[in-house]
Design brief:
This protein is an alpha+beta fold. It has 4 helices and 11 strands, in the order H-H-E-E-E-E-E-H-E-E-E-E-E-E-H. Strands 1, 2, 3, 4, 6, 7, 9, 10 and 11 form a 9-stranded mixed β-sheet that branches. It has a two-stranded antiparallel sheet with strand order 5-8.
């Protein structure tokens, strides 16, 4: 079997001799040689360093964070024994951490606040890992898993059921805010969804223990 003829470069170009030379060098040699040179150079400069992770922007309580989907303002953090009205019920050895926030859908279509979309996808507690909120509810009428209409701001309460020793009154609650990417499905999948949420900012909210506050009020 004869080799397929190679395309000849046009006369008068400088690429011809270079391509001809490369064509005669075994591919494995090119790969191995390039790798060896790369490793030698990087070793001389201290080896392969990990890519730096961008620092998260630090926001003050009530300061706005805006991405392509949401405008969010995180106002305060509250600890309580349970919060069934907002869809969060704590068991033995647990408490509820509730965030009071303002959220506005800045996209073009309504989005639900839960089911790994919008608010549930955007907020995480730094001390609680990648746990999604237990519930999201409207502050005015306690509707759980509300929809956010485009351009309409809503006051929400976002809750997690946490170990009772995770936070105490006066602790700073670090909330990580993530930005998602719009994905438009093709072929088998269809529609639009927000995916691949990546941390973009953090907010420190002092925790207020409602039980302690109520006890102090009752003692007066």
């Amino acid at each position: 079997m004869t080799d397929a003829p190679t395309k000849q470069p046009r006369a008068g170009t400088k690429a011809g001799p270079v391509r001809a030379l490369i064509a005669k060098v075994p591919t494995g040699w090119i790969t191995g040689g390039a790798t060896a040179i790369f490793l030698a150079v990087t070793a001389a400069f201290g080896g392969l360093a990990p890519a730096p992770t961008p620092a998260l922007a630090t926001l003050e309580p009530g300061e706005e964070h805006v991405n392509d989907l949401l405008s969010l303002r995180l106002d305060r953090a509250v600890l309580m024994d349970s919060f069934p009205e907002a869809g969060a019920i704590a068991g033995e050895g647990e408490r509820v951490l509730a965030l009071s926030i303002h959220a506005k859908n800045v996209w073009t279509s309504p989005v639900i606040t839960t089911a790994e979309q919008s608010v549930s996808q955007a907020l995480r507690l730094e001390k609680f890992g990648d746990q999604s909120p237990a519930a999201v509810a409207r502050m005015d009428d306690a509707t759980t898993s509300p929809w956010l209409q485009p351009g309409v701001e809503a006051e929400l309460v976002v809750t997690w059921v946490v170990p009772d020793d995770l936070f105490a009154d006066g602790d700073d609650v670090e909330v990580v805010v993530s930005d998602a990417t719009l994905f438009t499905g093709k072929a088998v999948t269809y529609g639009a969804s927000w995916v691949d949420a990546k941390p973009a900012a953090r907010v420190l909210l002092p925790a207020t223990d409602v039980a302690l506050t109520r006890g102090a009020d009752d003692a007066e």
